[in-house]
Amino acid sequence: MKSIRVHQFGEPDVLKVEDIPDPVAGPGQIAVGLCAIGVNPVETYIRKGIAGPAQFPYTPGTDGAGIVESIGDGVTRAKPGDRVYLSGSVSGTYAQRALCLEKHVFRLPDNISFAQGAAVGVPYVTAYRAVLVRGSAKPGQTVFIHGASGGVGLAAVQIARAAGCTVIGTAGTEAGRKLVREQGAHDVLDHSASDYLKQLMDLTAGAGVNVIIEMLANVNLAKDLTIVAKFGQIVVVGSRGPIEINPRDGMTREADIHTMRVFNAPDGELQSYNAALVAGLENGTLRPIIRTELPLSAAPKAHELVMQSGACGKIVLVP
Ligand code: NAP
Fold it and tell me: What is the pTM assigned to this prediction?
């Protein structure tokens, strides 16, 4: 089968298409024929060597969707022919097939395309954990999605809206802001405008927001501490460098700063989050948005694109 293989850390051109043997499902394993693969920023950090060690050669990726081809002994959760999405794998997902454990595989509802299924794993699990678990957002509260136009941001908008929150999102482009509004934000601001935080405070009549889901903490965390409501929660989802903050801004409000990493979610919780996500996909409250579909061989281009501003949903590879 065709697979992207990485033999050394480096720029996107280290993502090479190679022919490797098809995976074989051992006991407790499931082999999935992939129809779409989700591209996440973390895969660029791993490729560059800034997100921990790697064992070379490796196949990147944890997200994808497709059809179960074969199952190993003891597998009860899926059977050949099932439509599934993946939230993790043993072999990596930038390939025509992926080897998974039972816990990685979830039923893909019929109303959700494979491309949309490939957009669920990291983005929706992250958004669910950020908004409802780490951020403890409650119905009636105001949730500010600081960076709402990307894979995680749009998922967070849909999840917070479905939970009965007032949702305010930001995006850096007109197209992104239109999309964020269409996906359920009550108000949308431009995080590149000089006065957008004043606009935010005006929208909340000066009270600030109860929960902030932060996609770029190295730029925004100090500002977040000035716009969070009293006893509010800030959840750091994304950060690409250091930042200086004034703790007194948080103390005044008795605000909490939470960090999170999706891969830290315990297995039992992951199963629970995905059960909620499948229900939301089925009933239409969760609708993954695909920005573009590229062939597997364009993985280097996908890695460039995912790190550029102007997000409008998810980048997906088609093997
Ligand atoms: P993405 O699809 O590339 O989206 C990036 C988002 O960041 C876009 O909405 C973008 O808006 C926004 N952004 C750009 N400049 C910003 C600014 N100054 N203030 C606020 N937002 C800004 O990426 P993603 O998959 O949604 O992931 C978002 C971030 O979370 C990434 O840094 C990623 O590494 C991280 N992440 C962390 C976890 C975790 O477990 N902690 C899991 C998944 C993702 P415009 O393009 O419209 O400007």
Answer: 0.98
